[in-house]
Amino acid sequence: MNSRGDRPILVRRATDGEHTAAGATVIPVPGSAGLVIGDLLRVDPGGPTEEDAQVVDLFPLTVDRPLAFAHPQFTPVRKLGPPSPDATINGKGDDLYGSSGKGETKNADLAPGTAKTFRVEIQNEEHAAGDFKIAGSDSTDPFVVRYLEGTTDITAAVKAGAYVIQQLPAGESRTIRMKVKVKRTAVPGTIGRFRVKTKTGTTTVVQDVVRATVQVIP
Ligand SMILES: [Ca+2]
Questions:
Q1: Sheet order of strands, 115-124 included
Q2: Which fold has domain 85-216?
């Protein structure tokens, strides 16, 4: 997993002589500096007074919490990327993203009456914790699909697209399992295609999809 958040420093405090006192919620930057409300910022990234805050207003640039440290003029401020998921299926699809599932598909051949479990791992590749919503395919005859996290059956929520991994820390991952069972009455040659989609809780855009293609064999 790579981080997609190592973007260049976006903002430099440019006003001569101006500094930010500890406890302040306004950071003096020129104009809006390309930021929008909701952006996550890291002040003094990598430095002794590194801290994070979220933009709540632009003119002037205002953050959601009092700064813990005083910052001298020209302290760098970096915009952090939003929480962003990377899904894999049985280890396939790492550092690939998209709504097609291309390069993120596992195939399996299953005899009637058998089942296979796929591990779907959701990684948070950005610098901020975030909520990730999971949506998975429903059962289609002769396949029965269930979803599990640990020993908890999360099938109904995942099929409804309502399952949320809450506040997954930056750089961490969570694994759910997709269990595909083939009914005993299944006809060999039948193919089932199943998808798991993931997106951040704050967007409607699907950010990554993994797929499983299951074929019934004699
Ligand atoms: Ca992926």
A1: 85-89, 115-124, 173-182, 143-149, 152-153
A2: Immunoglobulin-like (2.60.40)
CA of 84 to the centre of ligand 1 (A): 11
pLDDT digits 0-9 by tens, 31-53: 666 777 877 888 888 889 999 88
Provide the whole-model pTM: 0.68
Angle at the Cα of 55 (from 52 to 56), degrees rounded to 5?
135
* Least trusted range by pLDDT, from 52-61, 77-86, 192-201: 77-86
Class of domain 1-81: mainly beta
Highest mean pLDDT among 26-30, 57-61, 85-89: 85-89
| Ligand 1 centroid – CA 76 distance (Å) | 32
Task: Report domain extents, the chain.
Answer: 1-81, 85-216
Name every residue whose Cβ is closer than 8 Å to that of residue 139 and which is 6 or more positions away in sequence.
145
Could you tell me the distance, in angstroms and rounded to a whole number, from the CA of residue 157 to the centre of ligand 1?
22
